[in-house]
Write a structure and sequence with these properties.
This is Acetone carboxylase. It is a single chain. By secondary structure, this protein is of the alpha+beta class. 26% of the residues lie in helices and 22% in strands. The protein has two helices and three strands. The longest helix has 10 residues. It is globular. The mean pLDDT is 93.
C-alpha cells in the first residue's frame, strides 16, 4: 500500500481506494497476520462479502484511519 493514490482491488476497477479490508486465511496465516485488500465505495460490500463468506474477513476500516494507525 505504498502507492501515492491507492486503487481498489476489485478486478478491473481503477477507482481510488477508500476502505481497507483486513483479512487472513486461518489455514495458512497465523491468527495475528493481516493481509489487506483495498476497496472503493462501489466495491466495498462485494469484496467484504467475498471474504466474509469464506470466514477470512477480520476488519473493514477507512483507508485514512488505517494509514494513521500504521504511522503510530
Amino acid at each position: 500500500m505504498s502507492e501515492e493514490n491507492p486503487i481498489c482491488s476489485a478486478k478491473g476497477c481503477r477507482a481510488d481506494a477508500v476502505w481497507v479490508l483486513a483479512w487472513n486465511n486461518p489455514k495458512i496465516h497465523t491468527p495475528e497476520r493481516r493481509k489487506t485488500w483495498l476497496a472503493c465505495e462501489e466495491h466495498r460490500e462485494h469484496l467484504s462479502q467475498f471474504l466474509g463468506v469464506r470466514g477470512f474477513l477480520k476488519d473493514v476500516v477507512l483507508l485514512k484511519e488505517w494509514e494513521s494507525a500504521e504511522g503510530s
